[in-house]
Specification:
The chain is α+β, with helices and mostly antiparallel strands. The chain contains 15 helices and 18 strands. The strands form four sheets. Strands 1, 2, 3, 6, 7, 8, 15, 16 and 17 form a nine-stranded mixed sheet that branches. A four-stranded antiparallel sheet has the order 11-13-9-14, covered by helices on one side. A three-stranded antiparallel sheet has the order 4-5-18. A hairpin with a 5-residue loop joins strand 4 and strand 5. Helix 1 packs antiparallel against helix 15 (about 440-460), helix 4 packs across helix 15 and helix 5 (about 165-175) runs parallel beside helix 14. It is elongated.
Length: about 450
C-alpha cells in the first residue's frame, strides 16, 4: 500500500472522530461583526491552535486590533514545496433566528429521503467545514507517515465576514514569515455536487457614486417645469449613453487589457453542460441581457461589466409630489477582468460625465473602492497536478472555472506576498451561506479531506 493509499484509508476510518472535531469548532459563536461575540472568536482561535498543536504544528494566536489570527507552521521534507493554507474561522450573524429549523450553533447531521446526508449549522460551509477538510488531511498524513509531504504554513483569519480590517496590515507586518511557494484557498466551491473545480480567475471591482446638482433647492414643477434643469433627466441620459445597443460599454479605453479565454478553457466551459435558461429561470428571467455574441458563462467569468446599482432623486415616498429635484445620484459598479486598470476607468467615467453636463449643473464623485482582476497561472504544473488529484478523487474531470465576484485575499497574496493561489473548495450553490439553515454536504467534508490529501501528494511530486 502506498503512503497516499494509507492516508486515504485512515481518513475513511476516522470519519466519526473528524465530524466530532468539526462539531466542536462549529459550536463557537464566532460572529466577527458583533462585539458581543469577541470572546467567542478568541475561543475559536484558541481551539484551532490547540488542534493544530495536537498534530505537530508550531501554532499560536496572533493578536490584531480586531479578532486574532491563527498561524501555524510544520516543515516537510527538504526541497518540498512550501504551501500557505488560508481559511477563516469567523461566521456571519444568524438573524433572522426564527427562520432556522434548528439552533444555528448546535450542528447536526440530517439525512434526506434519498439517503444523502448534510451537516446543518452556521459556519458549516463558510468556512469552518471547508478549512477543517485541510486540517483533517494533514492529520491523516501525520498519523500514517509521521510527516507532511510538503512544508505547510496555516493562516486562519477571524475577520473575513466583517471586511478583514486587520488582514492587510498583518500580511505586511509578517511578509517574510507568510510568503510561501503557493497559497491554498478553500473558500470556494464545486461546479456541481459531482464535479470538482479550481477557480482560476476573479473579476475586480470598481465602485463610483455620481451626484448631480442643479437648482439650489427642489422646485415646483408647475412653476419651473421646462426652463429649469432637471438632474434626473440629465443623469438618466448620461447613464443611458454608457452602453450601446449590443451591450458593450462605451467609455473610451474601457476594454483595454481585456483578453480572451484560451480555446482549451472555452472547451472546458462548453463541456460543463451549463444551462443558461435554467440559470436565468431561477430568478424569473429568460433572456441574456449582456454583450451580444457572448455566452452567459463568458459574460460572468471573462467579460467586464458596468452596472447601475442604485439611482435616486426627487420624491420617492408614498403618494405623489410634483417636484423638480435639486439633486440626483447614481451608484455605478464595474466588474473588471484581465489587465483592466480600475483607476484609468474611474478617470474615463468622470471625464465622460463632465463632458456631458449641460450648463447650470454641477457634479460630485465619491469613490467606493477599486481593485483589479485576478488571473492565476492555470497552465503551470502545480495547477495541473491539483486538477489531476481532484479528478482522481471525484471520478470526474475537474474544471478550471472563473469567478464572477472577488475574493480579496487572493489579490492580497499576489500584491503583498508575491504569491499565487490555488483556489479549491467543496461548497455548493445551495449551501445557504450567510442565510438561515446553512449546510455543508457530508460528501463535501469527507471527500474534501481526501482531495486535499491527494493534492498535497501531487504538489510534493
Amino acid at each position: 500500500m502506498s503512503k497516499l493509499d494509507a492516508v486515504l484509508s485512515h481518513l475513511d476510518a476516522d470519519q466519526d472522530a473528524a465530524l466530532a472535531r468539526l462539531f466542536e469548532l462549529l459550536k463557537f459563536q464566532s460572529i466577527s461583526t458583533d462585539p458581543a461575540y469577541k470572546a467567542d472568536c478568541r475561543s475559536a482561535a484558541e481551539w484551532l491552535v490547540a488542534d493544530l498543536e495536537a498534530i505537530g504544528f508550531e501554532a499560536s494566536v496572533r493578536d490584531t486590533p480586531g479578532h486574532p489570527m491563527v498561524v501555524g507552521h510544520q516543515k516537510g521534507p527538504e526541497g518540498a514545496p512550501h504551501l500557505l493554507f488560508y481559511g477563516h474561522y469567523d461566521v456571519q450573524p444568524v438573524d433572522p433566528l426564527e427562520l432556522w429549523d434548528r439552533a444555528p450553533f448546535e450542528p447536526a447531521i440530517e439525512t434526506r429521503d434519498d439517503g444523502t446526508q448534510l451537516i446543518r449549522g452556521r459556519g458549516t460551509a463558510d468556512d469552518k467545514g471547508q478549512l477543517m477538510t485541510f486540517v483533517e488531511a494533514c492529520r491523516a498524513w501525520k498519523a500514517k507517515t509521521g510527516a507532511l509531504p510538503c512544508s505547510v504554513t496555516i493562516l486562519f483569519e477571524g475577520e473575513e465576514e466583517s471586511g478583514s480590517p486587520s488582514l492587510t496590515p498583518f500580511l505586511e507586518a509578517n511578509r517574510e514569515e507568510l510568503t510561501c511557494d503557493l497559497a491554498l484557498v478553500c473558500d470556494t466551491g464545486m461546479w456541481d455536487r459531482d464535479t470538482p473545480a479550481i477557480n482560476v480567475t476573479l473579476r475586480g471591482l470598481l465602485g463610483e457614486e455620481v451626484i448631480l446638482t442643479a437648482a439650489d433647492r427642489d422646485l415646483h414643477s408647475g412653476s419651473y417645469g421646462g426652463p429649469a434643469a432637471n438632474p434626473i433627466r440629465i443623469l438618466s441620459k448620461i447613464l443611458a449613453g454608457l452602453h450601446d445597443d449590443q451591450g458593450r460599454v462605451t467609455l473610451p479605453g474601457f476594454y483595454d487589457g481585456v483578453g480572451e479565454p484560451s480555446d482549451a478553457i472555452k472547451a472546458q466551459w462548453d463541456a460543463l453542460g451549463f444551462d443558461p435558461d435554467a440559470f436565468l429561470g431561477e430568478v424569473d428571467l429568460s433572456n441574456p441581457a449582456g454583450e451580444a455574441g457572448r455566452t452567459v458563462l463568458e459574460q460572468i467569468w471573462s467579460r467586464p461589466t458596468l452596472e447601475f446599482n442604485g439611482v435616486t432623486g426627487g420624491y420617492t415616498g408614498q403618494g405623489f409630489k410634483t417636484v423638480l429635484p435639486a439633486q440626483a445620484s447614481a451608484k455605478v459598479s464595474c466588474r473588471l477582468v484581465g489587465d483592466q486598470d480600475p483607476h484609468a476607468i474611474r478617470s474615463a467615467f468622470r471625464t465622460y460625465v463632465r463632458d456631458n453636463l449641460p450648463p447650470d449643473c454641477d457634479v460630485e464623485f465619491l469613490e467606493h473602492g477599486a481593485s483589479g482582476a485576478t488571473v492565476l497561472p492555470h497552465e503551470s504544473p502545480a495547477y495541473e497536478a491539483a486538477r489531476g488529484a481532484l479528478s482522481l478523487e471525484w471520478g470526474k474531470e475537474a474544471a478550471f472555472i472563473g469567478g464572477g465576484g472577488s475574493i480579496p485575499i487572493v489579490g492580497h497574496f499576489q500584491s503583498i506576498l508575491d504569491m499565487d493561489s490555488l483556489m479549491v473548495g467543496f461548497g455548493l450553490d445551495d449551501d445557504r451561506i450567510h442565510s438561515p439553515n446553512e449546510k455543508y454536504e457530508l460528501q463535501s467534508f469527507q471527500k474534501g479531506a481526501r482531495s486535499w490529501a491527494r493534492i498535497l501528494a501531487a504538489l510534493a511530486e
